[in-house]
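Q: I'm building a small set of examples for a reading group on sequence design. Run inverse folding on the following structure and report the sequence directly after it, with nothing in between.
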């Protein structure tokens, strides 16, 4: 048996150990309680946050907002409805224009204002308008024909001269130039000649001499033109020199023009030429003319200037454009507009081309 002293020591040790155990258990209990309280507080905070979000969503929906799926459905419905509305508006516009007599080609053109529309060979060609080039500033109401079918400028630009002219060839036959002058014609373009579209032969117009002399004697200013079918720069130079030799005896105050257009024949010699090749032909002719002291000019229609030539290389050359409706459908700057191929002028038997000169920079 242990002594009394030993029993006291043992009892003290046990008591100390129990106190330590109690302290440890108390600490563990405190940590556990603290952790539990933290969890409860976090859950309460999350619950409050969720309630706030739910209240916010309820408020949003009450104010007319929608879920993602609801928004997607509404966008789809709106697209389909908008597409149908736009489609109907286009159809209504097309119908209205056709019923007014505007014609299919003009109707389609009005729908593509930033492109030149060319209708040929049973199809349409769309050529973007080059906005970097000089554009004409005329409006649809700037020109109108009078009772005699003569086109007049009715705009407000004081720099526009709007003078009447004609262009002639052997197809007009004999012309009474005195009567032409009395009819108010101020200038005339006389055809010097042409190159055969299939043969390639250069020939002088049968009425060139009679026409240029008759016009000048009647006090009408003259320019000249040559119907080109050149397939290379050498032939273009040949055509230019042919014209320069022919006009050397006369006072030509209006431009010397190269006429570039697609012939009606199916075997024309220029049909395989590229735009680059055709542009070089035009440049060679015009540069040769300019080098001899005359003002060069290019004659053509929308097909000529949109499909056959590179307009970016011809910016500094005057343009004579053919278009037989009013208003003019041609976006670029021009000097002369041939507005009719079936005009009537006293002194000319039958039909004659009519022109209006809007600016004279020569």
């Amino acid at each position: 048996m242990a002594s009394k002293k030993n029993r006291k020591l043992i009892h003290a040790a046990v008591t100390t150990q129990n106190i330590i155990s109690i302290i440890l258990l108390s600490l563990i209990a405190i940590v556990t309680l603290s952790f539990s309280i933290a969890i409860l507080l976090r859950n309460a905070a999350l619950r409050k946050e969720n309630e706030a979000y739910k209240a916010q969503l309820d408020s949003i929906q009450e104010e007319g907002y929608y879920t993602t799926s609801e928004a997607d459905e509404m966008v789809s419905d709106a697209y389909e409805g908008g597409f149908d509305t736009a489609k109907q508006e286009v159809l209504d516009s097309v119908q209205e224009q056709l019923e007014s007599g505007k014609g299919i080609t003009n109707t389609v053109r009005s729908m593509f204002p930033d492109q030149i529309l060319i209708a040929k060979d049973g199809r349409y060609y769309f050529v973007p308008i080059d906005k970097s080039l000089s554009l004409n500033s005329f409006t649809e109401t700037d020109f109108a024909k009078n009772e005699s079918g003569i086109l007049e400028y009715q705009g407000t630009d004081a720099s526009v001269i709007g003078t009447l002219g004609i262009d002639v060839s052997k197809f007009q036959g004999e012309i009474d130039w005195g009567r032409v002058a009395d009819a108010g014609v101020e200038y005339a373009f006389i055809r010097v000649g042409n190159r055969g579209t299939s043969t390639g032969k250069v020939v002088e117009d049968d009425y060139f001499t009679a026409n240029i002399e008759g016009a000048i004697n009647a006090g009408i200013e003259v320019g000249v033109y040559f119907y080109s079918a050149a397939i290379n720069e050498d032939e273009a130079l040949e055509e230019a020199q042919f014209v320069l030799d022919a006009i050397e005896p006369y006072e030509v105050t209006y431009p010397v023009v190269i006429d570039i257009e697609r012939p009606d024949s199916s075997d024309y010699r220029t049909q395989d030429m590229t735009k680059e090749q055709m542009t070089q032909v035009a440049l060679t002719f015009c540069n040769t003319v300019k080098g001899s002291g005359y003002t060069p000019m290019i004659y053509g229609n929308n097909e000529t200037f949109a499909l056959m030539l590179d307009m970016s290389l011809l910016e500094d050359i005057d343009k004579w454009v053919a278009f037989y409706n009013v208003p003019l459908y041609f976006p670029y700057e021009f000097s002369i507009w041939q507005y009719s191929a079936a005009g009537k002028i006293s002194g000319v038997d039958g039909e004659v081309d009519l022109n209006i000169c809007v600016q004279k920079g020569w």
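The longest strand covers residues 187-195.
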